[in-house]
Amino acid sequence: MKYALLLSFLVFFVFACKKKETENSPSTTVVQSGVILPLDTGNYWLYRDRKMDENDSVYDDRSFGFNIGADTIIKGQKWFNIEANTWYSNKSDGLWQLTGHSQALVYKYPVTKGSTYTTTTTILQTPEKVSVLSIDTLIIVPKGSYHTICYKFESGGDVAYAWFAPNIGMVLQESISPKSSGNGTYISEKLELTSFVIK
User: Are 107 and 164 in contact (CB under 8 A)?
Assistant: First the structure.
């Protein structure tokens, strides 16, 4: 019984976005420095990528990684290539994405808890409302424990959460889907950080 309660607590702790606000952090602001995603050629992140059905059964479990392969200067701004035809740059207000001729602020940084903005990115691939749900959530993943910022992306019925540790990058991402019964939602995909190299 004791182990069942402990396991229940750990599952709740890891999956709730308001998992753990540190006691000494302000409720709406935090001093933030550096960048939300360190961009430099050769940086690399590896994730465990699991896809689940609505009964929480894993039907696909694999490793997924991305690295920064090249950089270029476009209109005086340095951009780094992570995905085919998609470039990223850290600006004074956060991480921007460039696809074709379209730029979008993906992860605002620094941020304030409760702030919202609208973007169009490759995350949900449609105009998305982004909310900053927390600015100091402790997340535990295979690579370790990290204090993170929780971003929530919403577009229509699609929802995704991304937890970023400043100066490290994405630690956890969850995609939420509606159940076929129409009653409730479930985690349909989860990416957890397993290793990274930052130069």
Answer: yes
